[in-house]
Design goal:
single chain; alpha+beta; GIY-YIG endonuclease; Nucleotidyltransferase, domain 5; 8-stranded mixed β-sheet; about 20% strand; extended; disordered C terminus; cytoplasm
Length: about 600
Amino acid sequence: MASEYLEHKLALLPDRPGCYLMKNLNAKIIYVGKAKNLKNRVRSYFKSSHEGKTAKLVSEIQDFETIITSTDKEAFLLEITLIQKYQPYYNIKLKKGTGYPYIKITNERDPQMLITGQVKKDGGYYFGPYPNVYAAEETLHFLQKVYPLRRCHGHQGRPCLYYHMGQCLGACFKEVPKEKYTIQIQKIKRFLNGNVSTVKKSLLAKMQTAAKNLKFERAAELRDQINYIEQTVEKQKIISNDHTPRDLFNFYVEKGYISIQVFFIRQARLMKREKRIFSCLNTPEEELASFILQFYNRKNNVLPREILVPATLDKEPLSEILQVPLRTPQRGQKRDLMAMAGENAKLTLQEKFRLMELDNRQTVGAQQQIFAALGLPYGHVIEAFDHSHIQGSDAVSAMVSFVDGRPEKSNYRKYKIKNELEDHSGADEAANTREVIYRRYSRLLKEQKSLPDLILMDGGLIELRVVLEVLHDELGIQIPVAGMVKDDHHSTSHLIVGEKGQIVPMERQSQGFYLLQRIQDEVHRFVITYHRKTHNKNALSSQLESIKGVGPKTRTKLLRHYSSVKRIKEAPVADLMKLGISETVAQTIKLSLSTTPIRKIGS
């Protein structure tokens, strides 16, 4: 239900086309949409019941703003601009580039063919996209043999190797007439547009002539070229009677998700397929329209001559924006292909659901098992801690966060222990635990941030008791705590709880136990990585302290800029002087470090 503030804003919405921007508690834009009627569309979020991700979106909306446009077409264009600018969490977002390879004929006096992933408005001819680089390379190599242009770097006063091989028209040593290039380019275009019968007949005739003249190597080469046409260009079934480059879009919607299939039809064949699955927060047609505009707004994407879409899509504004006709096939092979794309979209989404169900068992389901084993109601957030040190020195701690069974790396934290033992006579695990737990949760309380649902401490009974004491007696908060105990092989063994360290039984083959292992391994990896960096930095600082003339300011400069003895050793004296270090001191540093062995961790 909308708040009083939102109700007031809803009453002021205009009956006009435009875009709306949904904001969360922090005024961050989390969703951008467009509508023919802003009043009806925006009100529908708060006046209708929703489920899945749409319900989650609505629950986070604390404010919104609208931008009125003159037409629905302008609203489409503005929506794409706003999505690209703000990258809202709930919007469909596509990568900036397609990553597809194209064959290009360059726009030069002596043109050449090459493979590129960069499509530019440079007057060149682009053919594709191809399924992968290998397919594009094979096609390019074939064309260079059958319809050569230029393969050398240009005029060099003598014929190049490719000219002798029949794969270059000779721009290397003579002026090739433009008409000759034009004829070759027309043949290449016809071939890449699917008209292969002419070249196939020509190659067959040449092969027979070569065999008749006992030129068997040449005949074998021509035979291989014919085989290439049959195995690649003609391998796929003809799906159209014309050679118009076209793209086809269809979708399937279920359980709040939309599955979109894109078919690339080139050379009258299905050349490539692309599939995407997103949360469906609006009508499927609006989600598809937004997807299509973003799809063609990416870099390195060549528009086809025609786009095929479902009949329910509003084609007119999209056609005006893209300057390409959008049609719905009514009969024949293209209609069958549209149905096939829809069926593929359905199968892809159902497969996604099965994988999501499996993933859910390994994440949310596994976390549910951990909470159930501890006799707790399900909680979303688990935070786990571990320490690392070398005989008490360079002591650090680290915390990892798991949300619904998945690592939430943006919530990971590192802690350099402040109250380290001065004589480094050994590690005080209890003191380290006390410090890091107090620092973590006193800060969350001070900043009024949410607390985790469970704390896991890598260690035994001592650490567990300290955590309970800090939480209950010093901070006055009640968060469930358990200790992760390892066996003699340093592998996860079991959980303990309470002042007496009661063992919590868990089935070792269960998903919950596997998740527990992942959490313990992850926090250990994270803290060890942090400790190594800290130890190396301290070791470097210690080595620099012993060098005459190197004071605290110079040490700080060197640590920030180089961070390792090896990098300082490799740096020229002139580079050290650029940091404001005198030549004498720089030379002293280089000499001292070159005679000092690098101390290894743990030595």
